[in-house]
Amino acid sequence: MLCACSSSPSLSVVAVDGPLCDLSRQLAPADLRVTCLLDPEDDPHQLQLKPDQQRHLSQASLTLTNGFGLTPALEKHPQAIRVAEQAFPHHSGDPHLWHDPRQAAAMAAVVSRELQRLSPSHARAIQQREQAMASSLLALDAWNQRQFATLPPGTALATSHNGFRSLSKAYGLTAIALIDDHSSSEHLHPQDLRQTLHQLEGHTVKRLFSEQQPASRALQRLSQLSRIPLAEEPLMADAATSDLMASLSNNTCLIVESLGGQCDRPGQRELMARWHAIPVAKS
Fold first, then answer.
1. 248 with 148: CB under 8 angstroms?
2. pTM greater than 0.85
3. DSSP state, residue 264
4. What counts of helices (H) and strands (E) characterise the chain?
């Protein structure tokens, strides 16, 4: 279900994927209508545009997408602003840059700049909200550092797909993409399965993390053969989120607690309260 986030504006913004729904909705002034193109359960990698989505895109004054191939259906959209590509023009590889909160803050700055261009009369208010957002994300980074410090350095983070390389690099984890490293699909052929099991044997892996519920058959099979249990809940990798702070901090606690560390839940609640306290535009 598409989310329209203000009442009667004259200009429209379409936020396509990743963290852009929440970033755009929080930053946009009241004269801009923000439409979140994807639902949380939608997979941007497999997106096939529906008629209502195509209509919103055709009517948009500004279209914001992550870029770096996260949503192939919109890679050639001529008017789209590729936010992560503009924030990190020399990056290549994993498009999920926002899992490092410092990189999410840089993406918020790009969104802020584009919204100011579209609504210059509200530029100062947009800047103030972006500064508050950046401060909250930097506080999340500092909190993350403390949570991941409760794990041994180089702890293996074994996930289905290449969604957490930015997070792993930021906090000293060893990223293992169990399916993406050995297959171009959700299925593992016998040879791929043997290679993946051999890869797991080379690390101390306490849990396997899925990005969907239930976990894919391939991941369930890997868990069965390796005798490494699945984490109780899935991580949020590339689903569009309406609450970036909640999804990022929940991922941190799920990883840390599943791997034997400790997560500061009161600190997490403070971060979420701070995020939700960022003033929204008034109509």
1. no
2. yes
3. -
4. 10, 8
